[in-house]
Each structure stands twice: as structure tokens, then as C-alpha cells.
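Re: export button greyed out
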Amino acid sequence: MESQDLRKVGLKVTLPRMKVLEILETSKKRHMSAEDVYKALLDMGEEIGLATVYRVLTQFEDAGLVARLNIEGGHAVFEMADGTHHDHLLCVSCHRIEEFVDEVIEERQRAIATEKGFEMTDHSLYIYGVCKKCQ
Amino acid sequence: MESQDLRKVGLKVTLPRMKVLEILETSKKRHMSAEDVYKALLDMGEEIGLATVYRVLTQFEDAGLVARLNIEGGHAVFEMADGTHHDHLLCVSCHRIEEFVDEVIEERQRAIATEKGFEMTDHSLYIYGVCKKCQ
DNA sequence: ATGTATGCAAAACATTTGCACCTGG
DNA sequence: CCAGGTGCAAATGTTTTGCATACAT
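Workaround output, generated via the alternate export path:
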């Protein structure tokens, strides 16, 4: 019962929120832009406003249900949060997105922030390249 | 004679290009948005269009004269290219930007791309935090 | 001269917001 | 019932583009 997920994070259970959550959970694409989610809903015959999709995604992000990636090119994509931090590899040709975790990099980042006198709040790392299938 | 710099990279030497280059080279701020450069020029009494600033900065980027940073929040900032790759630490409070180079991270990134079958073309790493002065 | 570059205003884009109406608890 | 959520359209902020004019070589 996914309506529990919403209640758990303090969000009223509304139809648009359920629908967006459903799309994010069931779509074959793990990474979707607001526009992607909007179109997917229209395609299934659901009525929703694009502004609502943006609002809902932002609320989900604040609630920790989804993570927002700010990739180059100005548009953001969202993924269901799985609790574990990870970074991303993006294929500049087919736009495939792969995930990775590297504890060495994580540790170096923390060390660098400390060295420079920063209290790290966040970090973003994207590796761009051409994936196996596109070479 | 900086007009040589422009000719060297195949750009016609025009007044707007010289002026933008001058601002980037002489401003106390190493990192400037297109708007910053535009305002700085207006402040010195120069006439220039914002669209021209954007066009010139993009040409400079293509020519390798400047590097573009895509920081969170949707606007880009530019810095004079110094030939050496480096990543950035950004203060979320005062927006100070510091630079760093970490060979361990660079190496891990290359290794990860290889592991995943990617031919790395680029990467971007930003560490966000609160700097010493803002804590 | 002549191909490029510029300035302006308008367009494009992703995202946000104001507001009247609708809805969940 | 009523605070909060939604849809729509309009506003936003940044960057790009069309086009007539101006400039570098």
C-alpha cells in the first residue's frame, strides 16, 4: 500500500501524488524529468498539470522519497531514492545513466572539504562519456 | 598584446571580444556569470549587448580560453582557463568558489569509467558546503 | 567589398507562482 | 468544513535566435 509511503513523510494522500509515485516506481526508466513524468501520465490517460508534477516532485525530494539530479543541459531528472548515496555516469550519446559508489572518492571529498575549512553539505559528481554500446 | 590571444584561436579581433577578455582577466572575481560580465562592462561605460556577452563567452569556451561551470541554480559562471584541470568547492552561504585538484579522485574516476565500459569525455565535481568565514 | 559580428527585441526553455476552484480527512 | 492541493495561465530567469545594421580584414 504505497499511500502509506506518503503519509509516512507527512504528505496528504492525493490522487496526483499517488500517480506520480506510481510512475516513478513502475516506469522502466529509472531517471525521469518532470516532463517525462507528465507525459507518461497523460499517455496513461491521467489528468494532471505540469505545475503539479513539478510541485509534487519537489515535495518528494524534500521528503527524501526521490533524488534530483542536475545534469548538464539545464533540466533536472529524478530517481526514486534508495537510501544509498551514489554518483552517476552519463552516456553523452544515448543518455543512458549508470550509477556507482566509490568510497575512495567519498573519503577524498570529505578530506578536501575539511582541508579547505568547509563544512560539506552536499556534493555532485557526474562522469560524462560514451558507453560501451555507443562506441 | 591580448588581441593575439584571439587571433591565435581563430577569432576575429573585435571590440566586444577584447572587452570581455579584459574583464575576465582583470576582474578581482575569478568566477563571473554572463550577467556579471555584462554589468561590469556597462559599469565601465562600455556599450555591449547581453546577447553578445553570451555569444562571446560561448566562443571563448569553444576556443578553450575560458571554462564554463554549471553550478546548481541554473546559471553558469565562467573562469579564465589556466590549462590545468581542477574541480570546485562552493560556499552555499557566501557563494565563494574555491578550486582544488585531487589526483586520487581523478584516478578513481578514470578507473570507474573504464570498469563501466565508458570512454570518459568529461566530468564535473562540485562540493557544496559552508566556508570557514560563514560558519 | 563582403563575410562576420553585433545589438535589439522576441523566442525558447525549464521551472515557479498567483489565484480561483476542488478535495481529502 | 476548511486547510491544503490542484489546474491553468501568466510570470520568471537564463540563455538563444532572427534579422537588419555595423565592422574587421
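The mean pLDDT of chain B is 95. The button fix ships in the next patch.
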